[in-house]
Amino acid sequence: MGSTARPVSGWLALLSERVTRHRLNQDLSQASLALRSGISLRTLARLEAGEPVQLESFLRVLIALGLEGCIESWVPDLPESPIQQLERGGQARQRASRRTSAGQSRKVPRDWRWEEDS
């Protein structure tokens, strides 16, 4: 994480302010939005105060506010490169590569074997 990255608390504050603005622009009380979202009033109050809440609760509020179109842009789809697809024979990647202490991928040749000392 770079020094210019926004801390998690900063993201929570920003998102809570925006959710509150959207709620007020739609002339909804916290109680009516909580009911519409299917979450407790306390959870909505925590969300609007910038406190951590479960992701599902946050998504429910966004959907109730009609903001579900924004959700998909948070983590854009990243198609796998054709080279990676070929290397795995068309199989989808399931896990990350192991890294050495220097951060380099550690690839062991398939024909590698332990050498016995003489």
Q: Could you characterize the architecture of this molecule?
A:
This protein is mostly helical and 118 residues long. It has a domain at 8-70: lambda repressor-like DNA-binding domains (434 Repressor (Amino-terminal Domain), Orthogonal Bundle), CATH 1.10.260. Helix content is 46%, strand content 0%. The protein has six helices and no strands. Helix 2 crosses helix 3 (41-48) and helix 2 (30-37) packs across helix 4 (55-64). The chain starts with 7 loop residues before the first helix and ends in a 31-residue tail after the last helix.
Q: What would the keywords be for this entry?
A:
single chain; mainly alpha
CATH superfamily of one domain: lambda repressor-like DNA-binding domains
H-E string: HHHHHH
Distance between the termini: 48 Å
User: Count of helices?
Assistant: 6
The level 1 CATH classification of one domain is Mainly Alpha
Q: How many strands appear in the DSSP assignment?
A: 0
Task: Indicate the CATH architecture of one domain.
Answer: Orthogonal Bundle
Mean pLDDT, nearest integer?
84
Give the % helix: 40-55%
Our estimate of the beta-strand percent is under 5%
Low-confidence stretches: none
Shape: elongated
Helix/strand-derived class? mainly alpha
Q: Characterize the largest beta sheet: strand count, sense, and whether it forms a barrel.
A: none
Which fold does the CATH topology of one domain refer to?
434 Repressor (Amino-terminal Domain)
Radius of gyration over all CA atoms, rounded = 23 Å
